[in-house]
Amino acid sequence: MEISIGLPNTLTHPGPLMIEWARRAEERGFTSLGTIDRIVYPNYDTIASLCVAAGATSRIGLLSGVLLTPLYPPVWLAKAAASLDAMSGGRLTLGLGVGGREDDFVAMGRSMRGRGQNMDAALEIMRTVFAGEKLAGDAFPVAEHGHPKVLIGGTSDAAVRRTVEHGQGWIAGGASPAQVKPMVDRIRREWHDAGREGEPRFAGLAYFGLSDEETSKRSLRSYYGFLGDFADVIANGALRSPQALRDAIKAFEDAGLDELILDPTVPDLAEVDRLADVVF
């Protein structure tokens, strides 16, 4: 299983840390740099963060885990993603999900009730744009460059369908290994039943913090505060010791993941080296 690291795009820090973090992660051999998406929160934007990381590096993958697709104008999103993939040398993987926070939808003037239909429509647009084809009525293709890989997030029947119809695989957001394995097995089965060639790719996320436990917990309680008391469960569940990390990595690998993205909870550049020293 490949090990990746998240960018600190949900954490409070001076913006230039993103550049230093991306470069250090590439130097230490992580597979990808991941992001977490949100609108009504003082995080750094997903696409902007990945663009900055792309410009600061040359080899490491770029992965949105996950980007809340129905919040954005789909043609713009498809064009931006194709452009980033092309200019980064084909390094972009889009982890895409429907989102679940009503305030994000209100802020963007989008319908939360219609997010499933909007997600399906966006995926069809992305398929057309990434193929370099024209959208209906357009004189030119929106893009003739860039073909990002797509991973679909979510655990619903619709998420499974979207994975099989549109994705190169599936991404688990915040799920335990015990929750991941049934989804991996189901998607693999339905993938082959649908006649898809090859094997789907599976990725997942987990939080870590190898220093400053109080800052680590505080950042997670802030980000997940909308969940009430359950925010403490998430804050207390981050991986904060070398043994906890090793155990989690083995469990996720046994569950069938191909890639695990370890997302930071402490905005300290030394966390990149602390994690690399444990996992490599």
What does this structure look like?
This protein has about 280 residues and is of the alpha/beta class. It is built from 11 helices and 8 strands. Strands 1-2-3-4-5-6-7-8 form an 8-stranded parallel β-barrel, surrounded by 7 helices. α6 crosses α7 (about 175-195), α7 (about 175-195) runs parallel beside α10 and α8 (about 215-225) packs antiparallel against α9 (about 230-235). It starts with a strand and ends with a helix. The mean pLDDT is about 95.
* Helix-strand makeup class: alpha/beta
The biggest sheet, with number of strands, parallel, antiparallel or mixed sense and barrel status, is: 8 strands, parallel, barrel
Number of helices: 11
Average of per-residue pLDDT values: 97
Quaternary arrangement of the chains shown? Answer: single chain
Low-confidence stretches: none
Please give the alpha-carbon distance between the first and last residues.
Answer: 12 Å
Main sheet strand line-up = 1-2-3-4-5-6-7-8
Strand content: 15-25%
Radius of gyration, CA atoms, in whole angstroms: 18 Å
Helix residue percentage: 40-55%
What is the number of E strands? 8
Shape: globular
Order of helices and strands: EHEHEHEHHEHEHEHHHEH
